[in-house]
Specification:
The chain has 332 residues and is an alpha/beta fold. It is 39% helix and 22% strand.
Length: 332
């Protein structure tokens, strides 16, 4: 089973210097190829790889199309059974590939896998972007085993299992190449953020299985491209979440759920005002207008998806966390 470890890079020479060594050291297995997909960097990223890691293949994209287009463009040129999409700010550990490849071999119905993702800056904690596997509530708000909103759990081996999840983190995302192509890759309208949730939901609509494998561990810096406090990140997260709902919600629920989300987003915008963060309020307003602009395009894509009803187990993670004060996944 040939596996391509593909690292998307944009002006990330410092990240490559720091994290490529662990990937090279712990990916030295038969049928493993390491590739850097460069999104038209203007720093010395490409020269650094060519000089220091001549065995690593480099695919140079013509423009910076973000995460979605960056991978879509690069993976056209990659021949492998499994694509391992790895952020440039990921440190991998010894044996990280073995349990994941083994799961793919034993379970032909499993299409997508995520490892355990811990915080590089505090390695006892789960990391925001994925933690121990993702889910969404009725209104499309994402949460994870090990992470509910900004509450990060300590890793005490409570999620060392192998289990089915709803979405896998794009920070370290394994997918069968045939499934990736069947789904036509990521939706490039997203640019970045939450495109992996959309792709996983589309996979679920085709009855594909998505797994978390807790015996594989990686460490993620998080926010290395867009910081948590970035209004651009707020804009992308709010807009792209609405994109995902418009494309994937069951027809019987689409109007009510999206209307409810718009109201909830408005409440969040008011909250940002009271917190003296008006730039994020403005980012939500921009996100809504961008959503309206692209809505006809999203509804057209929806016709090719065939949404299913069974997409959530928790009605409102907002209610569970902020009103009922539940802070850990196992309390839900």
């Amino acid at each position: 089973m040939k596996t391509a470890v593909v690292i998307l890079n944009w002006n990330g020479k410092q990240l490559l210097e720091k994290f490529i060594p662990s990937i090279v050291k712990y990916s030295n297995l038969p049928n493993i190829e390491i590739i850097v997909a460069d999104n038209a960097s203007t720093d010395n990223s490409v020269n650094f790889i060519q000089k220091n890691y001549p065995s690593i293949q480099i695919i140079q994209n013509k423009k910076n199309g973000g995460y979605a287009k960056g991978y879509n463009d690069a993976l056209q040129h990659v021949n492998a059974d499994i694509f391992a999409l790895v952020n440039s700010d990921i440190e991998v550990t010894e044996g990280w590939l073995n349990p994941i490849i083994s799961t793919f071999k034993k379970e032909p119905e499993t299409a997508i896998i995520q490892p355990k993702i811990l915080d590089y800056k505090n390695k006892s904690k789960f990391e925001y972007a994925g933690a121990a596997g993702g889910f969404i509530d009725k209104f499309g708000y994402p949460y994870c085993r090990g992470r509910i909103f900004n509450n990060l759990e300590t890793d005490t081996a409570q999620f060392n299992d192998v289990t089915e999840i709803f979405w896998a983190s794009g920070a370290c995302f394994f997918i069968r190449s045939k499934v990736y192509h069947e789904l036509n890759g990521f939706d490039e309208t997203y640019f970045a953020h939450q495109e992996e949730i959309d792709l996983c939901w589309r996979a679920k609509n085709l009855q594909k299985t998505i797994k978390y494998v807790g015996s594989s561990t990686v460490y993620h810096v998080g926010g290395a491209t867009l910081k948590e406090a970035s209004p651009r990140k707020t804009f992308l997260n709010f807009r792209n979440s609405l994109f995902t709902l418009a494309k994937n919600l069951p027809s019987s629920k689409i109007f009510l759920i999206i209307f409810s989300r718009l109201i909830l987003d408005g409440i969040t915008g008011v909250k940002f005002l009271f917190e003296l963060r008006p730039i994020h309020t403005f980012a939500i307003i921009k996100a809504h207008f961008s959503f309206y602009y692209y809505l006809p395009k999203m509804l057209k894509k929806r016709k090719q998806i065939h949404p299913k009803n069974n997409y959530y187990t928790i009605k409102s993670i907002v209610w569970e966390h902020f009103i009922l004060k539940k802070k850990t996944f196992n309390e839900l």
